[in-house]
Every structure is written in C-alpha cells, then in structure tokens.
C-alpha cells in the first residue's frame, strides 16, 4: 500500500508526468519489496515552493508505507527518486527532500475498511 506524493514547483507535461509516475512506482516497489499493484503515486506540479530562499527547481516528497520503512530502504528510495527528478525535471538532488512514514495497517483505509 505504499503511497508516494511528490510536489514540485516545475511545470510537468502529461508525457513526462506519466514517465515519472511509472518510474517512481517501479523504484519504490522494488526497494520496499512491495507489489507495484499496491502502489499509489501522486505528482503535484507548479506548487509554490521556496527552497533556500530560491524559486529554482525543487521538490518535496512523502512516502507512507505499512512496514518496509527503514534507514537502508529510505536511503535507496531517496537516491532513486532524486535521480528520477533530476533526469525528468532537472531538479538537483540537493533541492529535494523526502519524508518517510511507517504506519500501522489499522491507520490506513482501503476498500471500505482498513488494512
């Protein structure tokens, strides 16, 4: 059930958006050992972001997962996503933060119930 939300101040066209969503889904699922079929990825573009006093290209992410959040996997996910954002949106890795949340299944709603 991993849910990844990425917000960026850059403008993203629909084809680039598709590739980012697809690549992020595959990367996060692989690192966390979760099936891609359970992944959800949201991409918000043109979000007002000021990073270090600059409006240059930047991004912020949040990854929520039931388990699999750990220092080693967090580093791998951060590296993979930073690479995707740099290659697809020209967001330097130094202008991207990501926050990781490990949640209990009872705190995640799905299909009219919880996990």
From TrEMBL:
It is an enzyme of class 5 (isomerase). One of its GO terms (molecular function) is dopachrome isomerase activity. It catalyses: L-dopachrome = 5,6-dihydroxyindole-2-carboxylate; 3-phenylpyruvate = enol-phenylpyruvate. It is found in: Secreted. GO terms for cellular component: extracellular space. Its main location: secreted. It comes from the Eukaryota. InterPro entries: Macrophage_inhib_fac, Tautomerase/MIF_sf. Keywords: Cytokine, Isomerase, Secreted. Its EC number is 5.3.2.1, 5.3.3.12. PANTHER family: D-DOPACHROME DECARBOXYLASE, MACROPHAGE MIGRATION INHIBITORY FACTOR. Belongs to the MIF family. This is L-dopachrome isomerase. It comes from Selaginella moellendorffii (Spikemoss).
